[in-house]
Write a structure and sequence with these properties.
Blueprint lengths: L2 H7 L2 H6 L3 E3 L6 E3 L3 E8 L6 E5 L36 E4 L2 H6 L12 H7 L12 H22 L6 E3 L13 E6 L19 E4 L7 E6 H21 L4 E5 L5 H13 L10
Parallel strand pairs: 7-9
Antiparallel strand pairs: 1-2, 3-4, 3-5, 6-10, 7-10, 8-9
Helix pairs in contact: 5-6, 5-7
Length: 277
């Protein structure tokens, strides 16, 4: 493998752009799949009604489906994709909270369940169950997936995928071969120069090396909310769970986590959030 091939292999943005291209069913925009949300139809295990739910986001895909009372469809969620048999082809929509929110209107979902798809699957658009909170529900699943991926990296402590960063938020404090920066915020009230640090969306910082590569900075309190950040700190453990800033190494094993971080940040584009939301 050449040095260029190795850099591309370890680059989450290059991997995202190299993914298969699919079309958004509602806007016809063609993009690589990491920039889209994949939806599939699942049969409710008790009623047999088709539900449209996100596919491939669940952090625990092998988790056994819970028992569901007959007629109680509110308990079926995409966090248990094995709860029902898939029926029909999947469809894609732009990975944007604002766009998924518009799909609450049946007319907006008409292209997702076209007559042609209905003929193939035997499922009519009017029969498909759609969660009214689908936009927020999808965001919840993405947040859980990010925590899962970062927790996995932390569990591989021997690989040094995640490392704590001491000192000010500058490139000079970053370990060698850092691929991205995670800002978790302080666990105690901060006064002085560090009190105002709150990186906005799509922040970058120099890696502090002669190459001066700009690294993505992810503001986890904004992306995940306080509840999921607390969960993440628990999974990070005593060694790095208390850190204010972490570095993700530029290694192939870290690419998936960075792609999910980027996907969540893109999905939340334009949402007004406050820390703890």
């Amino acid at each position: 493998m050449t040095p260029l091939q190795l850099r591309l292999k370890n680059n989450p943005f290059a991997q995202a752009l190299a993914a298969p291209v699919r079309a958004c069913a509602t806007t016809a925009t063609r993009l690589p799949t990491p920039f889209l949300i994949n939806f599939e139809l699942l049969r409710h295990p008790s009623t047999g009604r088709p539900w449209c739910l996100p596919k491939g986001i669940n952090a625990n895909p092998k988790k056994k489906a819970p028992e569901v009372e007959a007629g109680d469809e509110s308990t079926l969620s995409a966090s248990t994709p094995t709860a029902g048999a898939a029926t029909g082809p999947t469809v894609y929509a732009l990975s944007r909270h604002a766009l998924v929110s518009t799909l609450n209107r049946p007319a907006s979902r008409s292209r997702m369940h076209s007559p042609r798809k209905a003929e193939k699957t035997g499922v009519q658009a009017k029969d498909v169950v759609w969660r009214e909170d689908m936009a927020d529900f999808t965001m919840k699943l993405l947040r859980e997936r990010v925590v899962h991926e970062l927790g996995y990296l932390a569990s591989r402590s021997e690989s040094n995928y995640l490392l704590g960063c001491k000192g000010a938020m500058t490139g000079e404090t970053l370990p060698y071969q850092t691929g991205a920066v995670l800002w978790l915020g302080s666990t105690v009230p901060v006064k002085g120069d560090g009190a105002g640090i709150n990186p906005p969306a799509y922040s970058t910082m120099s890696n502090g090396q002669p190459s001066d590569i700009q690294l993505a900075v992810y503001n986890l309190p904004r992306l995940l909310g306080d509840v999921q950040v607390a969960r993440l700190r628990e999974r990070l453990g005593r060694d790095i769970g208390h850190e204010e800033m972490l570095a993700i190494k530029s290694k192939s094993g870290c690419v998936a986590a960075q792609m999910w971080l980027w996907k969540l940040q893109g999905y939340m584009q334009g949402i007004q959030v406050t820390d703890g939301s």
